[in-house]
Amino acid sequence: MTASAADPADPDPAAPGSTDPRAARTRARLRAALWEECAERPLDEVGVAALVRRAGVGRATFYLHYPDLQALAVDACADVVRDAVEALHAWRGTPDAAAPPPALAAFFADVAPRAPLYRGLLRPGGGGPLGELLHRELRAYSRRERELAGAPEPDLVASAVAAAFGGLLADWVHGLIDATPEQITGRTWRLLISLHRTPLP
């Protein structure tokens, strides 16, 4: 027996993980529209009506893909979160405090010109949809790496690393930390290494 189009076992073409080309294009337009809106106003002031106008889609289409703006914001943040997590772990062997991974320097350099966009999604101190997603993903990765290395207190250190990086990134894009991309790269790298090397019972 074949499943009908309404069969709940069928994959939803509008779901975020769907590979349907039309759905993927629509989500890309909505993500781009959100970034453009956040360049002009805080996320809390963005409305669905203005967003769908900018994206050139109907309101019903928006809700077909996302339950609310928060869900769209989390989806829009996925790439920068992935880049941040990969950049912080782009090294092999023993980390050198004087030599941050080139990927980390590239990450901060890429963030700098888009700082006004991130301010709407990343609040000072590391909150907001971008901060929450970054903390969750970075903590999980750091905890897994620390466990594999047999290092003590993986939960504690992973939480500290995720909180420190998210807070530093947020305060930097909001102008609370005065540093060039190169300077924030070096300072962040040294701080995170010190967290990993802190003697723990």
Would you kindly provide a written description of the structure presented here, covering whatever features stand out?
This protein is an all-alpha fold. It is built from ten helices and no strands. The chain has helices at 21-38, 48-55, 59-65, 69-76, 78-88, 102-111, 115-119, 128-148, 154-173, 181-197.
Shape: elongated
Helix- and strand-based class?
mainly alpha
Number of helices: 10
The overall pLDDT average reads 87
Radius of gyration from the alpha-carbon trace, in angstroms: 19 Å
List the main descriptive attributes of the protein structure presented here.
201 residues, mainly alpha, 10 helices
Structure summarized in a few sentences:
The protein has 201 residues and is an all-alpha fold. Helix content is 62%, strand content 0%. The protein is built from ten helices and no strands.
